[in-house]
Amino acid sequence: MNRTTAPQGYALPAMLFLAPALILVAVFVAYPIVYAGWLSFYKWNGVSQPLFIGLDNFIRLAGDATFWLSFGRNIVVAGAALVLQVFVGLAIAYCLVRVVPFVSRFFLFCYLVPVMVSEICIGLLWRFLYNPYFGLVNGGLKAIGLGDLQRGWLGESDTAFLAVIVVMSFTYLGLYVLLFTAAVRSVPESLYEAADIDGAGHFIKFFRITIPMVWDAVRANVLLAIIGSLKTFSLVFVLTNGGPNQASEVVSTYLYKVGFSSFEMGYAATIGFAQMVLTALGAWIIFRFLRRASGGGED
Fold it and tell me: Transmembrane ranges (predicted)?
């Protein structure tokens, strides 16, 4: 077979196999992005004819304090995800593989249950748990003698955002435990045996062997957590809808209210377009930082 002409013979079948995925990406990803970018230059209520207003929406966005406060909360959510989901998930995965492997399947199943359940159902369940009158959270505090700490967790500005972060951490933790469990199991056993000979404990093994050996998985999961945190919507919408008094507002819930409550579709498209750009920029910065941290150098 002529190697110079063989790829041409496979080009058509390859394109046929790729066509369904490319069509889906073009229709449901590329087109909405282009359309949102186009609509961001218009004032439109969703019904009447769009009115071209140039950069007015972007100028308004630059001075929109609610948008930037919402984006700041997304940054906080991302930071919490890195600690409470990615790092804790890696630590739990190490324990399941290296410390208590005989019960790893049972605990892995327990951690995966929230991942398998719809986010809407998770949000509704936690609303019952946080209920100030009959919720399990306040009931548990009262049962252990901490009744003074009882409060309306989702109804108070001081606690609503923290309560949402707790729910997110419990919901998504299992996904990272699963991903890291597969990565930790791929670490050569000989490295741990050598560490045992040197008398290293689990703390040293975790930081000196496990983390460096699964760094590619760490980098991928950090990016996954950052991107997911910057576009989170479902749990916030179900739990608080951004309230009370916008105390737990994130960009996606603010976008939803602007578009479907105030019917400012053009400005909502601007918010969505800016969210996409900021998310891509944040992911790129984190990726380069992690690449340098691992000694990978420049792209």
Answer: 12-34, 75-97, 106-129, 160-184, 218-239, 265-287
Residue 9 is predicted with a pLDDT of: 64
List the CATH number of the domain containing 179.
Answer: 1.10.3720.10
Q: Write out residues in the chain with pLDDT < 50, as ranges.
A: 1, 4, 6, 298-299
Q: Per residue in 181-193, pLDDT tens?
A: 999 999 999 999 8
The gap between the terminal CA atoms of the chain, to the nearest Å, is 36
Q: Is the dihedral of CA 7, 10, 12, 14 positive or negative?
A: negative
Query: Which positions ≥6 away from 152 have C-beta within 8 Å?
Result: 130, 132, 159
Token couple for 200: 């290293």
Specify the residue for token string 């299992």: 174
Question: Three-state DSSP class for 212?
Answer: helix
Does the global pTM surpass 0.90? no
- The pLDDT value recorded for residue 295 is 64
Is residue 126 domain-resident? yes
The whole-angstrom separation of Cα 199 and Cα 257 is 58
Task: Identify the domain containing residue 266 by its residue range.
Answer: 66-293
State whether the Cα torsion 7-11-13-19 is positive or negative.
Answer: positive
Helix segments in the chain, DSSP class H: 6-25, 31-39, 56-62, 65-81, 88-94, 104-116, 119-129, 136-143, 160-185, 189-197, 202-205, 211-213, 215-230, 234-239, 251-260, 265-293
Amino acid identity of residue 182, one-letter, is A
Residue 21 inside a domain? The answer is no
